[in-house]
Amino acid sequence: MHLKSQESLVTEKSYTRADWQGGYQSLTQEFDYWIDDIEGQIPRELQGTLFRNGPGLLDVNGQPLHHPFDGDGMISKITFTNGRAHFRNRFVRTTGYLAEQKAGKILYRGIFGTQKPGGWLANIFDFKLKNIANTNVIYWGGKLLALWEAAEAYRLDPYTLETLGNEYFNGALSPGEAFAAHPRVENNCYQDGGAPCLVNFSIKPGLSATITIFELNPAGEIIRQHAHSIPGFCFIHDFVITPNYCIFFQNPVIFNPIPFALGIRAAGECIKFQPNQPTQIIIIPRFPKEGQLEIKFLETHSGFVFHHVNAFEVGEEILIDSICYQDLPEVEPESDFRQVDFEALSPGQLWRFYLNLKNGVVRRELIESRCCEFPSIHPANVGRSYRYLYIGAAHAETGNAPLQALLKIDLESLERQIWSAAPRGFVGEPIFIPRPGSLKEDDGWVLALVYDAAHHRSDLVILDASDFSKGVIARLHLRHHIPYGLHGSFTCEVFGEI
Ligand code: CO
Fold it and tell me: How much distance in Å is there from the Cα of 400 to the middle of ligand 1?
């Protein structure tokens, strides 16, 4: 008997699936209020605005979506001023959102499996794309932009979150041209005399893909743009930059367009992972000289990467830290994402890659085996060597599980600090915010939304980035939940209540 109880302790999970599922209910309401239910104290030096994006609706008028990545983008905004915080959320009024809300039913096929009702006959040869603007939100060049990787950005009012329309950057982008959801901001661009620079990309898929790089100045103008043809199908969500390069991991997948065209499967369900093929690393110079486009292709182990942490150059080498999965599970047409068997999937793990540009050799080493995803670093260190990273992580050290904890890793000492919201809390992407005037890399705060299943609501937690062992220094209880989101960003601009 004694042995048996020991055993059940070891296999006990840190969460229940029913609790986790609560965070995937739609939020239909839009709110505006000062957050008054707070444990602890909001640091007075924390001034600015946190914007977050993610699918707000997981159904259209009761018709469930097949995958959360198909959900309409909803922006949440928390403004910090003088030790207080104000909350507002608004759906991005995309063409598709407005049309479906008016019709009260699903009108578009989703990339990740949502089909229009009516079976394959209703979906055959329907290539109409719904730009759901649900993946990231950034404030750059005086514009607040909601991003989705397969189409153009939507511009919003940073105060009211009102949707203002699509953003084409003074005609530099044409309608339908994508602006990816993972821009990187270099704090100090040598090409621009030390000014900050935002670097982003777009992928035009096909049997061979086109990757276009965009570089924007602080006024929000595209000042550099170059396109490159890449052999093979590209399913690329994120990239990294260094002072001289943009680096992409071309995951080993193939795309079979026939079931998609026939309306049997969604585009995302036609992607097949190739476990015996290497990952191709694409290195594109950021400042190609006239007529000389020296793209380098290197190879590493098979695997799948959604997100990179950071990259930097050391002599002949580029070092890249990335979250890698052993494989990409196929999105099955009959499956329900709410019933996912976490234990059957491979966890995301943090690896460091060393790319030798001289001899083309790629080495890699495992930094963190605990299941983790959604990294954040000090914003001044993008593309530079750095010491600390913050990341969502599973509560347990081994196995695959929902993110319930926040992990800080010191890449020099390899010391870890962890704060966990288990058993009933589930965390989203953490964001590191430096304390104004700070000199130490980890002097600042880590902010994250935590879904609290016990109260079916979300909290915004604030941790002292230099010491997670203090626990949360402030926990702001929202009056409702926010469905699990994707990415967000912080700006020191205070877009207060109006
Ligand atoms: Co992402």
Answer: 19
Cα 155 to middle of ligand 1, angstroms: 19
Give the Å distance between the CA of 136 and the centre of ligand 1: 8
Question: Which domains can be identified in the chain, with CATH numbers?
Answer: 4-491 (2.130.10.10)
Give distance in angstroms: CA of 151 to centre of ligand 1: 15
What is the CA(180)–ligand 1 centre distance, in A? Answer: 10
pTM: 0.94
Question: CB within 8 A of 393, min separation 6: which ones?
Answer: 370, 371, 372, 403, 404, 405, 406, 407, 418
Say if CB 93 and CB 163 are below 8 A apart: yes
- Token reading at 358: 């001289």
CA distances from 395 to 17, 417, 450 (A): 14, 12, 14
Ligand 1 center to residue 148 CA distance, Å?
10
| Mean pLDDT, residues 55-66 taken together | 91
The SS3 assignment for 6 reads helix
Distances (CA, A) of 446 to 192, 373, 406, 469, 494: 30, 15, 9, 13, 18
How many angstroms separate the alpha carbon of residue 12 from the centre of ligand 1? 30
Instruction: Give the residue with greater pLDDT, 349 vs 293.
Output: 349
Q: What is the pLDDT of residue 1?
A: 37
Model confidence pLDDT, tens digit, residues 162-189: 999 999 999 999 998 999 999 999 999 9
Distance 369 CA to ligand 1 centre (A): 20
In terms of C-beta distances under 8 Å and separation of at least 24 residues, what long-range contacts does 385-388 make, across chains too?
A: 385/312, 385/314, 385/319, 386/310, 386/312, 386/411, 386/441, 387/411, 387/412, 387/441, 387/442, 388/432, 388/441, 388/442, 388/465
Q: How far is the CA of 83 from the centre of ligand 1 (A)?
A: 30
Query: Ligand 1 centre and the CA of 240: distance in Å?
Result: 12
Report how far ligand 1's centroid is from the alpha carbon of 290 (Å).
32
String of DSSP letters for 406-457: EEEEETTT--EEEEE-TTTEEE---EEEEPTT--STT-EEEEEEEEETTTTE
Distance from Cα 276 to the centre of ligand 1, integer Å:
25
Per residue in 372-399, pLDDT (tens digit) is: 999 999 999 999 999 999 999 999 999 9
Q: Which of 192-201, 247-256, 259-268, 345-354 has the lowest mean pLDDT?
A: 259-268
